[in-house]
Each structure stands twice: as C-alpha cells, then as structure tokens.
C-alpha cells in the first residue's frame, strides 16, 4: 500500500516521524482518516486518540489534547498542545488532567470557556474508557 510522511510534534518532543499508510485524527469537526493523496486541509484537534497505521495490523496510538493537523497529499504534520504515547498514559495521569481542567473551569466566569472546558473533561473521560484505563 502507498505511504506518506507523518510527523507528530508535542510540546516537549517529537512523538512520531516516519512513513505511514493511514492516520486517524480526532478533528474538532469530527473524526477523520487520512490516506495518501488527501486533499490539503488544516484542522483543529480535540482531545482524543490519534491512531497511526504504519502497515497492515501494525501501528501506534497517541493521546492528544488539542492542537492542529496540517494535511496534504504527501504528508501530515500534527502540532499538539499536549500529547503522550498510549504506553505512557495511566489512569492517574488522565485523572490529574481532568482535575486541572476542572480547576480552570471553576475559576472562569466566561460561559463559553466553561462549556469548552466541560467538553474537554468529557472527551478525556471518554478517552479513558476507550483505552480501557
């Protein structure tokens, strides 16, 4: 199968760089799968799991908490606000993230911001369940 370049940059380090067959992204407008030759798109990412298919039946999963994906016909670059490979994610780390967001939510009077933060909390809880943590 054809491949394309996928680069995933987190705030502390590059989490992935290499040739892949497909990438599933949690876009703010909905989940999307990117394959070689994809039309150019710039999309915001929500909290969720990015699934990288390196080859059939082989790949990686990365928990992402916001960011952007720059998609083109020959490559995808993700710049994440926060991210970690699934192997590094624990129930306690997700619970700490949820607690930190709850503190931010409780500290703001901006109703739109509160709603956004509530969405992030729900997305983290759903990711925790989906990952079996």
CATH class of the largest domain: Mainly Beta
**Could you say what the CATH topology of the largest domain is called?**
ATP Synthase, domain 1
The low-pLDDT segments are none
Main sheet properties: 5 strands, mixed
Number of helical stretches of at least 4 residues: 2
* Arrangement of strands in the largest sheet: 2-1-9-8-5
- In what range is the share of β-strand residues? 35-45%
State the CATH superfamily name of the largest domain: F0F1 ATP synthase delta/epsilon subunit, N-terminal
Named CATH architecture of the largest domain:
Sandwich
What can you see in these coordinates?
The protein has helices spanning 91-107, 111-130; strands at 4-9, 14-20, 22-27, 30-34, 41-45, 48-55, 58-64, 67-72, 75-80, 83-85. The protein is an alpha+beta fold and 133 residues long. It folds into 2 domains: 4-86, Sandwich (ATP Synthase, domain 1); 89-131. The chain has a 5-stranded mixed beta sheet, with no helix packed on it. Strands 4-3-6-7-10 form a 5-stranded antiparallel beta sheet. Strand 6 (48-55) and strand 7 (58-64) form a beta hairpin. Helix 1 (91-107) runs antiparallel to helix 2. The mean pLDDT is 90. Pfam families: ATP-synt_DE_N.
